[in-house]
Amino acid sequence: MRTSWIKLTAIIFFAVPVLLLMNFKVTPTKVAASTVDDAATVYKAKCAACHTPKADKFYDPAKPEAEHVQVILKGKKGEKPPYMPGYEAKGMTEDEAKGLAAYMKGLKTP
To answer: Is residue 94 included in any domain, yes or no?
Structure first.
């Protein structure tokens, strides 16, 4: 009788809280890069290494914004590595890509 009581107590104090915690699902929230400050942060973290801080390399501001957005989202293979990676698979949305394209154009426009 005593061992049954110990087993029941152990189940209540250990198993039940674990089962309750398993029911809670945490969904991560995504912060959109919609403001200029966020686009600047993303550019400095992910783009400036290849494109330079002033977007001097591998960027043509004369191309339409839609083309820039597609390259940012899907990526692009150039003549030789390093290739432009696609950021859509890494969680970037079309609105974030538009903000980033506008920020890059602002770097090249006086």
So the answer is: yes
Provide the CATH number for the domain around residue 84: 1.10.760.10
| Structural domain total, the chain | 1
CA distance 100 to 81: 22
Query: Is residue 6 one of the residues assigned to a domain?
Result: no
Q: pTM of the predicted model, to two decimals?
A: 0.64
Task: Return left, alpha or beta for 55; rule: phi > 0 is left, psi -120 to 50 is alpha, else beta.
Answer: left
Question: Which residues neighbour 93 within 8 Å (Cβ) at sequence distance 6 or greater?
Answer: 30, 32
pLDDT tens-digit map of 65-92: 999 999 999 999 988 888 999 999 988 9
